[in-house]
Amino acid sequence: MAKNFFDKIRPTFSEGGKLSWLHSSFDAFETFFFVPNRTTRKGGTHVKDCVDLKRLLIIVVIALVPALLFGIWNLGFQHSKVFGLGWGFWQMVWYGFVKIIPLYLVSYIVGLGIEFASAQMKGHEVSEGYLVSGFIIPLIVPVDVPWWMLAIAVAFAVIIGKEVFGGTGMNIWNPALLARAFLFFSYPSKMSGDSVWVGGLSKALAGGTPWKGGEVVDALSGATPLSHASLDGLSAAGTSVWNLFLGDIPGAVGETSVIAILIGALILVCTGVASWKIMCSSVLGALFVGWLGNVGGVTDIPCWEQLLLGGFAFGTVFMATDPVTSAQTECGKWIYGFLIGALCITVRLFNPGYPEGMMLAILLMNTFAPLIDHYVVSANVNRRLKRAKTV
Amino acid sequence: MSDQIRLKKGLDLPIAGAALCEVTKRVTPGLVAVKPTDFRGMVPRLLVKEGDSVKAGTPLFADKKNAEMVFCSPVGGTVDAIVRGDKRKLLEVRVKADGKNEAVKFDVPKISSLDKQGMTSLLLQCGVWPCLKQRPFGTVADPQADPKAIFISGMNTAPLGADRDFTLKDDLAAVQAGVDALGKLTKGGVHFSLSAENYAGSEFHKLSGVIFHQFSGPHPAGNVGVQINHISPINKGEVVWTVDLPLVAVIGRLFLKGVYDAHRTIAVAGPAAKNPSYVEVPAGVSMKDLSAYFEEGEVRIVSGDVLSGEAVGPDGFLGFYHDQVSVLKEGNYYEMFGWINPFRSKKFSASRAYPAFLRRKKYDMDTNENGGERPFLMNDVYGKVLPMDIYPLYLFKACLAEDPDKMEQLGIYEVIEEDVALCEYVCPSKIDIQNIVRKGIELMMKEM
User: Fold this and answer.
1) Which of A15, A371, B138, B305 is the most exposed place for a label (fewest CB within 10 A)?
2) Residue B282: which of B103, B123, B411 has the closest Cα?
3) Between A and B, how many CB-CB pairs are < 8 A?
4) Residues 6 or more apart in contact with residue A255 via CB below 8 angstroms
């Protein structure tokens, strides 16, 4: 039936049709429903693997779902806890659901809108790259971020971060992180501090009388555990290692639960969609600097606990492994991942201004990934030159 | 003893329809064609007219740049048609066999009595020289060049590829004569690669006068380009020659029988092949003569293997270098939600995004692209199927950027299209990688 519908409207969008200028959009919708009937071309392989970008990217989205589901519950849980509401499970889920849906709407409408428009302008097919970026963005921004800010951030990330470089596959920085960085530096008051990570809290504090019928039990418990960056601080805030691992703590929607992220990591590694090398080396890098900090007396947090804190796990699994912006060579991936982990913890330990280093570490290494690759590839080139000389 | 080289990267396509190694049938020569387009870097000068009568071994056309290099009719008969394409480009010279199969009798001296010069001019004169290909770039060998060595792959790992142990089992003497003759052309020796799994089982290990190497691993371990990369990689300024094993026998037959005899046993195989089997055919056989082996309906007939062969259609002809015809169903259908279907059990994927890697079965592959063309996104899929010391993605991008210096640095001399065909097969962005590399090679040839 759907086939007939597409067949019927195809002439309108084909060349010469009334809406032929909308061809890219038609194509995007059609290929969403149907794998196209195109056959392999002259001069190439006659058979092709059945994997395509849609499939690979949908796997990333599926891998993100556990983190999203946990985050939705956690939104309600934190809200209920801070305001002493004593909600049940479904009330918490409903609260989180209502909070997160507008963010997704803004993220996809603005982001995909720009992607469609730019594909339309260039006459390309619409690339699926934004499916993943758009899914990640609501998971890493504060849940109370005003929608217009999010819309501007998404527009910035897609236009300046991606389209000006030529679109999907050509970008230098991870678009989702770019959106977050844009918010972070443009609207610092909405993006950091003790109150932004629990839904409804900043509004309540600003309004003086917090919540109809409720009192803020303990405003400070809205701070993420990262802001108590010592063992004493953590235990004073009542955060145990188990809490960090499970993720029932304040923070960005997707980043708190290490368990949910590990499920996602398992999916990504088993399907081979994301590079396990980057994940491993990032963990190694973080452990190394965490250990140095521990031995050097900068912090009393054991190095392995650093892995559970803040956005480290989420960044390592879902953002450092972005195939476009990460290092492209296998050897380069080890260096790239290690430096991300190491830089993240370095920022955490030595920069009191920014308690979280993951975003900046990844963006910085995105910038340097081509340089790492350049040296790895140069080694190959030199090997070839040397071979020519010795023979 | 020979050295053993284990390759891990690559992929053996589980494609259905392999030819059974039992029955060999014979096609009596009808219409055959010699296609100048099979020979890269050669500009043809026609030597015959329509209606001329020719024998097997009569030159049909020669290379404009090197008049000595002639391309001969594989059968006796009359020139049926001369087919030209755009800008009068010569595409095919068709010869209709008369059934008598007369051949030009060449005066062939003993191999041992010839030096390099003598051997070269003999092979040129008798029309077997085009059997030699040259790397870099896969052109017909330049008779003036001094090759570092000559390489022959004794194993065929291409999907549904002909088993040369089977197809050449009665031609061992010709293969031996062929390698003896080739040995005269280079000081670097004739390198012969065999599968490590079946080293002693292969009759070819009895050959003398060659340097043996053993390779193990999935396709493209049998590609001579990959083998050269591991035995003695090609550097700037160097030249090596390669000969496909069935064509070594063609060279050998010249010395055994004194005639140009290019017949060969080919595998007709593939998911849309009727009774996939081995067939003895003249060189350049018409697909019409093989139509009994093709299923009805919309099928694609490929001269060569499914990865790097040429779609010739039901009226086409077998390529000069090919000993295989692959038959595939055209995949011009829509598949609802194919990309989101968790199992999709009828399609094969080498990636673990589908559970295909858990199944051990052969697939009826067709020519559907399975997706739309996208920019390069995944960066680690190409290296996994190219067992060479090369960064494929960087090489492809250098080709796209038309930057000869970069291409040279990144190893364009070491690959031709067939070596990167698997990269194209696995590419989730459905990019025409072989065409990119082809354009890169053509640019390099122009620059040099």
Assistant:
1) A15
2) B103
3) 212
4) A67, A139, A140, A261, A310, A311, A313, A314, A315
Residue A197: what pLDDT?
A: 73
Average pLDDT, integer, range A177-186:
91
For residue B169, which of B203, B130, B146 has the smallest C-alpha distance? B203
Q: What is the mean pLDDT of chain A?
A: 85
Give yes or no for a contact between A161 and A171, defined as CB atoms under 8 angstroms apart. yes
DSSP run (H or E) holding B123 = helix B116-125
Q: Which positions in chain A touch B235 (Cβ < 8 Å)?
A: 384, 387-388, 391
Tokens at A89, concatenated: 């499970």
- Least Cα separation, residue B335 to chain A (angstroms): 5
Record: contact B432-A44, CB cut-off 8 A: yes
Q: What is the DSSP string of B394-444?
A: HHHHHHHTT-HHHHHHHTGGG--HHHHHHHHHH-TT---HHHHHHHHHHHH
Q: Nearest chain B Cα to A41, which residue? A: B432
Count of CB atoms situated within 10 Å of the CB of A170:
14
| Amino acid A287: pLDDT | 94
B388 CA: distance to closest CA in chain A (Å): 11
pLDDT of residue A209: 41
Rounded CA separation B282/B268 (Å): 14
By CB neighbour count within 10 A (0-12 exposed, 13-18 middle, 19+ buried), where does A219 fall?
Answer: middle
Burial-class residue A61 by CB neighbours within 10 Å (0-12, 13-18, 19+). Answer: middle
From the list A112, A98, A105, A104, the residue with the least C-alpha distance to A28 is A112
The answer to whether the Cβ–Cβ distance between A380 and B390 falls below 8 Å is yes
3-state secondary structure of A50: coil
Which range, of A3-17, A243-257, B223-237, B407-421, averages the lowest pLDDT? A3-17
**Considering only CA atoms, which of B178, B43, B182, B19 is closest in space to residue B116?**
B182
Amino acid B44: pLDDT: 94
The distance of B252 to chain A (nearest Cα, Å) reads 32
Count the Cβ atoms, other than its own, within 10 Å of residue B233: 20
pLDDT of residue A213: 35
In the prediction, which pLDDT does A297 show?
81
> For chain A, how many residues are written?
391
User: What is the tens place of the pLDDT at every residue in A85-144?
Assistant: 888 899 999 999 999 999 999 999 999 999 988 888 887 778 888 889 999 999 998 888
Measured distance CA(B180)–CA(B257) in Å, rounded: 15
Per-residue pLDDT tens digits for A243-299: 888 888 888 888 889 999 999 999 999 999 999 999 999 999 999 999 998 888 888
Q: Cβ separation of A55 and B380 shorter than 8 Å?
A: no
Chain-centre distance of CA B60, in angstroms?
Answer: 22
Contact B425 A39 (CB under 8 A): no
pLDDT of residue A218: 41
Tally Cβ neighbours within 10 Å of residue B41. Answer: 15
The Cα of B172 is separated from the nearest Cα of chain A by a number of Å equal to 32
Residue B299 host element (H or E) = strand B299-303
- Tell me the two tokens of residue A122: 């260039």
Residue A222: CB atoms within 10 Å: 25
Greater pLDDT, A239 or B233: B233
Q: Which residue of A has its CA nearest to B307?
A: A45
Q: Where are the beta strands (DSSP E) in B19-145?
A: 24-26, 31-34, 44-46, 53-54, 59-63, 66-72, 77-84, 90-97, 132-135, 139-140
Helix (H) or strand (E) holding B216: strand B211-216
Residue ranges covered by each domain of chain A? 57-203+236-266, 274-385
